[in-house]
Specification:
With about 400 residues, this protein is of the alpha/beta class. It contains 14 helices and twelve strands. The termini are far apart. It comes from Streptomyces aurantiacus.
């Protein structure tokens, strides 16, 4: 039987990186997609660059939208489904924001009425352009847009959690208006789960949109603290999947591991395949997993300047479109795995208050207790403190044991 879990890759064009939209070459895109399809993956995540597509608040470039549709159609010809991230936003350490939100036109990305309306129309337009394509999965509002809302960003657009929640509702509604019935979601980097003052909250991540997205990067202190082959490092993605379930209203809400990669030098190139296999295998031990989308398809060319060093080698494929050992490991796991994880019956208690979520971050008591349990073979999940004695909730999730971090020796 076909797997219930989707396997895909975040598409980073081999020529020009995401600047390829400025010199769009469909033949080059097709060659990239051929190399992805050859791995046996079933979907890609695609990144329009927001200021390239909407350089003025009232101008969404028709030619750019046509090129996005052409890319989606080329993917369909190769058996690949497509998810589109709208607001880029932030990619690989670079910010891409239109001039009508910056400097002389500086306006808050999340609260200014005109900016919000412009964003909504942009998302609606992209979704509508793809709505009739059978291989269109749906929209992701943007790539880790929460990084704009708090430190360590050098110039954050601050907004209270309630205003962020209203913004998310507006953006998701725009996606749904453009492409009714598709799988629309939003996605944040792990500060949503770990950073006390982040206005994008775990509850928003686990309750807004069709699925919960998690982005797992072990350079967040995990690999530095636990080492390349540490339990926490190899199970970090699984931890985020299970951590998200504490806040979900639906006990069976699907979770998409939408970004995960093997960052050097914490995971050296010669060990990337082993890390890939371990991470994917452990994620597949989590119930309700929608899919795994690796970061990323192709390396960043050394001809491009000023990227953090780790970004140049994250691809499953080289710039010459040759698969690396990590690509073969992912392809093999996608091809050979079976997905039938047993329920996780032991739940670790986490606090409800997002102002205390740093206890879940690397080095925090929840984080460290989770991996002590994992090392002992317990296969833990998580539960909010307010639900720790809710029999109906625990039964729905098949939880039979609830423990606090203090109880985990």
């Amino acid at each position: 039987m076909p797997s219930a879990v989707r396997f895909g890759v975040n598409y980073t064009p081999s020529e020009g990186w995401f600047h390829h939209w400025l010199d769009f070459d469909l033949d080059s895109v097709r060659a990239d997609l051929d190399s992805i399809a050859a791995l046996g993956l079933d979907h890609i995540r695609v990144f329009p660059i927001w200021p390239y597509f909407q350089p003025n608040r009232s101008l969404i470039r028709p030619r750019a939208v046509e090129q996005l549709v052409a890319l989606a159609d080329a993917a369909a010809e190769r058996g690949l489904d497509v998810n589109v991230d709208g607001l880029q936003g932030h990619l690989s350490s670079f910010d891409f924001l239109p001039a009508w939100t910056q400097t002389w036109h500086r306006r808050n990305l999340f609260t200014d009425p005109e900016v919000v309306e412009g964003q909504a129309e942009y998302l609606r337009t992209l979704a509508a352009a793809l709505a009739d394509r059978p291989n269109f999965i749906g929209m992701t509002v943007g790539n880790e847009v929460n990084q704009f809302s708090a430190g360590p960003h050098p110039d954050p657009d601050r907004a209270a959690p309630g205003l962020v929640d209203a913004w998310l509702e507006r953006m998701l509604a725009a996606c749904e208006k453009g492409a009714p019935g598709k799988l629309h979601l939003h996605a944040e980097y792990d500060a949503a789960w770990y950073q006390d003052d982040m206005p994008f909250t775990p509850a928003q991540a686990a309750r807004r949109g069709a699925v919960t997205a998690v982005h797992s990067w072990v350079f967040n202190g995990t690999a530095q603290r636990h080492g390349r082959t540490g339990v926490a490092t190899e199970h970090h993605a699984a931890y985020l999947i299970e951590l998200s379930k504490a806040w979900a209203a639906d006990p069976s809400r699907p979770v998409w591991l939408q970004e995960v990669g093997a960052p050097a030098p914490l995971v050296p190139a010669e060990h990337a395949a082993a890390f890939t296999e371990a991470t994917v295998t452990n994620a597949l031990d989590c119930p309700d997993l929608w899919g795994i989308t690796w970061w990323c398809s192709h390396d960043v060319s050394r001809d491009l300047a000023d990227f953090p060093e780790l970004e140049y080698g994250l691809g499953l494929l080289t710039n010459e479109r040759r698969p690396k050992d990590s690509a073969r490991a992912l392809a093999r796991t996608a091809r050979e795995h079976t997905y039938a994880p047993e329920a996780r019956t032991t739940a670790l208690v986490v606090p409800d208050d997002p102002a205390g979520r740093s206890v879940c971050a690397p080095g925090g008591p929840v984080f460290e207790a989770f991996f002590r349990l994992t090392a002992d073979g317990a296969r833990p999940t998580t539960v909010l403190a307010s639900r720790a004695r809710d029999v109906d909730h625990l039964t729905a999730r098949r939880i039979t044991e609830v423990v606090t971090p203090e109880q985990v020796a």
